[in-house]
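Q: Can I borrow your eye for a moment on a structure tokenisation matter? Would you mind producing a protein record, from residues through to fold? Write it directly below this note and I will take it from there.
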Amino acid sequence: MKYLFALLALLMGLFAVVQYNDPDGPLWMLLYGVPAIWAGIAWLRPRLLAGTGSLVLLSACLLAGLVLVVVLWPPAEDWWRTDVWWESEASREGMGLMLVAGALLAVLWRSLSLRARRAEIPH
């Protein structure tokens, strides 16, 4: 699991960095940076995910990401085809938000599994 979250953190961080020349780059740096930070926590400090506060904050981030996926769902037909998303920025942005939501969902899964494991340990 450690390697999966390392990969997610590095990919989301890379996605954030390459937004530097985009007209709406700061927004996308934030959108990619949030899951990069959460995946980094899951990679380097997973125990921080076991707390209630982190679960609430992570859930809020995931909910926001899912709402953005629904609101900015790619409007083009066959948006997954290379010839479509290569030309349609809205399709690329929609797919980017799907990646954000997927990364946050993976971190939430890790958080819930850590909480379940912590609950099994007798105090």
